[in-house]
Amino acid sequence: MLWLFLLTLGVVIICIRHLLESWNFPPGPPRYPIIGSLLSIEKYGSHLILQATKLIPQFPKMVGFFAGQMRVVIINDFDLAKKMAFSDTFSGRLIGMYTETMRGYNRNIGVISTQEFGFGNKGMWSIIADEAGIIVTDLKTQWDGQDLMVNQTFNISVLNILFKIVSGKRYRPDDPEMKELMRVLALVFKSAYIEEVFPILQYTKFTRELYGHSQKQLLTQTFKSMFEQVIQEHEQKLHTKESPEDFIDVYLQAKEGNDLFTKEDLIGICMDFFEAGGETVGSTLSWVFLYMSLNPEVQEKCRKEILQSLGVREPTMDYRGSVPYTEATIMEIQRCSSVAPSGLEHKALEDTELDGYTIKKDTLLFYNINAFFMDRDYWGDPEEWLPVDTLLFYNINAFFMDRDYWGDPEEFRPERFLNDDGSKTLKIERFIPFGFGKRVCMGESLAKAELFIFTIMILQNLRIKISANHAKPDPGQYEAGITRSPLPFHVTLEAI
Ligand code: HEM
């Protein structure tokens, strides 16, 4: 009888705890004790953020989920997202088993203290152009007239840029060890958060493998020992150099006599850059191939503009402004592909409220970048399209006459990012592929330079066509975790 009493007591405690946790929590699909919203999430598909977009008609501002025991809020409303992203209270990140134990040194390591290290300077442009030149020449010589399967094709080149900036090293684009690292890195991105949502999975070998535990461990160990070795080499040579040659040199110099800088954090920062800056830019370049093959007239228009403005000269960011249509096309590719559909999690650092709802400490909040990019009301609303320096009476006419400005977020249309005469790109508040606020992407200027220089060099050298022998690339076929990348697809390349 005692066991029945204890069982009933346990169930009652769990139910009361659940009621207290749910009290005034943002509305969302039904949630139950222990399993949370999992039953209701399942019917909307596996990717929480992309699927939260489907719930917008029911929950236009924000959706509250219980992922197991973890409280997660996804913000669909742009102004509310802005309020959250710019607030100190919501500027935390999840510290869990992956970040602390596996990736860290029993403490969280990485980024933060390095804000002043500039990613956008001119030295970086030539590093990017060198790397783009190598892969484009490879594609041009080896794949002319052939069908290329685009599958993480640019990821190693993008990692090489980071290697060069951080440590001065580079790898061949076909290096098998790097390819394996990239594969596992993609897996980490696809299965992020699972072990934190279901901590119970950590207890047996079988369940650990459901979220790729040993592969993740291998990846983090490989990254750690790789950077440990590179840092050691840098330490040995540090005092023989006249000035710092790369990021590790800069950090090691700053570290001398300053306890705030540690070698473990340096390893963490290097890992941050590789985790955040490889897959994101690499996937965007795959989307460039996909959308260029599907939109040959856009591709030709970009190429014409590029050849008129810089011919076959090596691109630098100084050419920004002189190829507005190409810039607008890159922006449209970023909008349509939503490579980081939800950014990273923001953790509430204390009990607080948001839009009248109670947000308890440690709740995770995401903003739904994908929803902002696909918002029919926004992308069709002429009022919000006014370029800062355009006179209103001029535009009213243009807007009223231009049917294309109305309600077409699903369309691939670079013109939406251009002013009326196509001479410059527009700054559009809701276009935030790199997030915004207190935790905005640290690599934004590097990523922008990479996308600009790679895209121009690709178009200077290659024509990308739909393959006659394979299925047409389909933007609806993608894999999504932290990042969203197209499933492998084929295109035919033609050297120019
Ligand atoms: C197309 C490429 C990229 C996209 C779309 C992208 C997008 C994002 C987004 C949405 C966030 C989260 C913002 C937030 O939580 O509010 C983020 C964070 C971050 N990104 Fe990027 N990113 C890209 C490339 C890069 C590159 C090249 C690097 C560096 C090498 C980088 C480094 C970081 C870091 C370190 C953070 C975390 C910042 C923090 O926690 O304070 N990213 N990125």
TrEMBL record:
GO molecular-function terms, A-Z: heme binding; iron ion binding; oxidoreductase activity, acting on paired donors, with incorporation or reduction of molecular oxygen, reduced flavin or flavoprotein as one donor, and incorporation of one atom of oxygen; steroid hydroxylase activity
One Gene Ontology term, aspect cellular component: cytoplasm
Sorted UniProt keywords: Heme, Iron, Metal-binding, Monooxygenase, Oxidoreductase, Signal
Signal peptide positions (record): 1-22
Cofactor: heme
Keyword Oxidoreductase part of the UniProt annotation: yes
Family according to the record: Belongs to the cytochrome P450 family.
This protein's name: Cytochrome P450
Lineage: Eukaryota, Metazoa, Ecdysozoa, Arthropoda, Crustacea
